[in-house]
Known about the structure:
The chain is an alpha/beta fold. It contains eight helices and seven strands, in the order βαβαβαβαβαβαααβ. It is 44% helix and 17% strand.
Amino acid sequence: xxxxxxxxxxxxxxxxxxxxxxxxxxxxxxxxxxxxxxxxxxxxxxxxxxxxxxxxxxxxxxxxxxxxxxxxxxxxxxxxxxxxxxxxxxxxxxxxxxxxxxxxxxxxxxxxxxxxxxxxxxxxxxxxxxxxxxxxxxxxxxxxxxxxxxxxxxxxxxxxxxxxxxxxxxxxxxxxxxxxxxxxxxxxxxxxxxxxxxxxxxxxxxxxxxxxxxxxxxxxxxxxxxxxxxxxxxxxxxxxxxxxxxxxxxxxxx
Length: 254
């Protein structure tokens, strides 16, 4: 993937899966661009970006129309032609996100924020940046198995991930016809990240997940990043959600 340009949306810390993907892409010779949501986390993201050699950071809060416009304008002004977009946004890490509550207690404003961050932002980014995508570019987004099951008090996040998976398929159809752009998703099993930390009981969740898998281990960011780069570099796959969870999904309960 020499001399290609990648935009990673959602790098937060050195433990972000977006960071692991950025490292893999950088090692393969790609130029990396990234975003940060607001000034409160800028220094932390910049430290991570500087350590990796990310070429430029752009401000982007997925809840703000003005940020979307400014991001698109900045990328166009820089003349950046994108070969790939990695969408690693999570409502669970947004400041003020109201987690751990029954779905019936969720108001429309909160639901609208959540679904925009987790899902519709992929539509908005793809549309605003369409002219800056190379023909045959790749887009990759992150979901999880909560899209298919009920999790007490966290069904808001499951709903947004289900919407994201449908959007991945819809964009694959639309963008494939217009510019041969591939759109895929990855659904990782449990691994330590900022979103899981917000849920609570992180170590207990990881231990239970490990014990459910045939491999008796948790998925790693390095393995997720390796799969991500393989998907981004493949010209014959689109509209597909890839599970990487050490086999947890195949195990049923009696």
